[in-house]
Amino acid sequence: MAESETAPAGAPAARRRPRRTAAQAPASAPGAKAPSPAGQDWSAWPTYNDATLGFRDFWYPVQWARRIGSKPMPITLLGEKIVLVRDGDRVRALHDRCPHRGVPLSLGRREFDGTISCPYHGWTFDLEDGKLCAVLTDGPESPICGKLSVRTYPVEERLGLVWVYVGDGDPPPVERDIPAELTENAFVMGGRTDVRKGNWRFAAENGFDEGHAKYLHNTALWRLFKVMPAWNKTRIVESDSGGWLIRVQDEIHWEADFPGLGTWTNKRWWKRMPLPDHPGKSADINPVIKKMDIPGFVSIRLPGLLRVAYPHFIHYEWYVPVDADHVRYVQIMVRFEDGPKAALFKAKYVSWIRWLFHGQFTGQDAWMVDVMDAPPEKLYRPDLSLTAWRRHIEAKKLKVQRGRGPLER
Question: Measured at the alpha carbon of residue 369, what is the angle toward residues 363 and 373, in degrees to the nearest 5?
């Protein structure tokens, strides 16, 4: 899929307001009392506040491997322009800018095996190391050859996806940034990826947010036959392995009486499938998911990966920073099955789950991420999931991605 913006399925048209990053939040008037850090701005979380473009030193999924061929494909990752191209049995990634006059290499041609040539003057770069190996319009003895190169990025293919590492030094194994259950077990999966409007932090917070599913998604077709709680009391725990923050439900309330207003509930006579507060609560549970022993329904981990565990399948959602105002959603649904059960799931996914869940349902999330305008903000009790995520990031002392100049050497 080309990197394009798509309107969220099932989301109403929104009135756009000027985008504002955290650093652009309105300042207090001289002499005025400073706002509460936890209630008005993000100054209590300085690393998070600065992470408009995400974090360095991580592997990020950027595209389906089957869609990368010999024709160059442009993407943007953490604000960096990158060109992907398949070279034999490997995918290569280079900074998408010719150092001559700044023309995108993704518009270029493949004149020779293992190279890409700028479409303007034929400056030709080695795909493996980015070195300038020929200048077609200056002859075989061009004196500039070998004196410069464009940046290259480590690339791996896992789960049918292309992963690109943005960081310094030698990268760790890509498996570090992939959940262990996906590298240790056989499974069948379906998924989709698209670029949506909004900053990646809003997307990650929406995924881990405690309260929105009970209200925003109570109109989703995916929830048509599933009873959802009216409100919960929740705490956040950190797993002993994998670096997951997990939402654990201590109380579940299916309806609530509001004095002077009446009763609010998500119950309907046709809803007969209550959502479990953790997958192990179900009597019928997949053995792999049961062995994982996840104490909560929803988890999140760095650099921005959500895991929603059901008794029979798990949904994963990567929030990959594109730039300050766009995020790549990489969504996969996994069943740890093989044989006929795996084939049946694949058929169900293609026929209706992809549209219903990875389209209309998460399209509601995309709608909110697009129109969200924070800070300033006022938080309420269920937002403990957001503040736990922000504190977790501060504790890890991560390297923030900054705006970068031309990336040629």
Answer: 155
